[in-house]
Amino acid sequence: MQSEKNAEHGAMMSNKTVDARKFQRIFFSAEDHVVGAASAPEIGMEHIPITYLNLSEGGICFQSERNLCRKLALEQEIVLKNSEPDVLAFLGDIHVRIKHVLDYDMVANVAFGCEFISIPEKVLGEIKIMIAAGMKK
Question: Which of 28, 51, 56, 137 has the smallest CB count inside 10 Å?
């Protein structure tokens, strides 16, 4: 259920489940096509193509094709690399830790909910601006 649409990318969702979370989120639809890459050097994964699903002050959620991310697991630390379009460019070289994994056999992708690890204040500021802009639209 998408409600208010960000002028460029993303949408805010408003329902009781989302509102109960610690942070507001901006959600990206399939039409937004916000993609990027991540790496998990500790397990030898240098390039993992990802599609961003949502963003909050606390973390991100992304999905990747199951066959490309089989080694990723809970508590795994990964590094975000880039995004296209550049709407999330400020997340480059940000470290996150996997906290939730949604993996259903009936779909080809696996979703990962991640929390930020020691996020710089400047990046946190960019996230707050993006979320506030999405909520006003």
Answer: 137
Residue with the two structure tokens 């890459």: 37
Please count the structural domains in the chain: 1
Residue 1 counted as domain residue: no
Of 121, 76, 80, give the one whose Cα is nearest residue 99: 76
Whole-number mean pLDDT of the chain?
A: 84
R_g of the chain, CA atoms, integer Å: 14
- In angstroms, what CA-CA distances link 135 with 14, 77, 122? 10, 30, 20
Report the predicted TM-score, pTM, of the whole model to 2 decimal places. Answer: 0.81
Closest to 21 (Cα-Cα) out of 134, 115, 97: 115
Q: Where are the alpha helices (DSSP H) in the chain?
A: 16-19, 121-136
